[in-house]
Each structure stands twice: as C-alpha cells, then as structure tokens.
Specification:
With 86 residues, this protein is an alpha+beta fold. The protein is built from one helix and six strands; from the N terminus they run βββαβββ. The protein has one domain. The longest helix is centred in the middle third of the chain and has 14 residues.
Length: 86
C-alpha cells in the first residue's frame, strides 16, 4: 500500500492525498485518536501480536503492527505515521 497524506481537522479526516475523504475509497486511514482506539481494542482482544512505538516528543503512536490470529495468513496490518504537522 502506498503512503497517504492525510489532513485532519477537528479530529475528522477531511482530505486523503489532497482529495476529499471517501471511506469506501480510503479504508484504513485513521486519525491519531482512532489509532489509540485501535491499540486499545487490540489490547482488549488479546491479539496474537501487537507492536507499538510512540513519538518520543509528542507521544502519538508512530508505528503500529497488529497480528490478530497466529494461524491466519494475510490478516495482519501495520501503520506508520510520519511527517506529522500541527
């Protein structure tokens, strides 16, 4: 999957790669709050593997990897947050 530039205003995704956000077209794109929720859900579900790294200065997750089931292939997902602007 190619990197996406995501613009968030008032905790809502407004643009993805400079086009209006369309959930059907832009699945898997999340706000920082949604990333925290995804991490909490994975912890609660006791997934097979959860790896999270946080930005050392701002505290937001900048890397997330979730493998929900050990014996299921191709259901794992990873996210990387970079070039964050405020």
């Amino acid at each position: 999957m190619q990197p996406k530039e995501v613009k968030v205003v008032n905790n809502k995704i407004t643009l993805v790669n400079e086009t209006p956000c369309n959930p059907e077209q832009h699945w898997g794109v999340m706000t920082i709050s949604q990333f925290f929720n995804e991490i909490e859900n994975a912890e609660r579900e006791e997934v097979f593997m959860l790896s999270v790294e946080y930005d050392k200065d701002k505290g937001f997750p900048n890397y997330i990897y979730i493998d929900r089931e050990e014996m299921i292939a191709d259901e794992e997902i990873g996210y990387t947050v970079s070039n964050m602007k405020y």
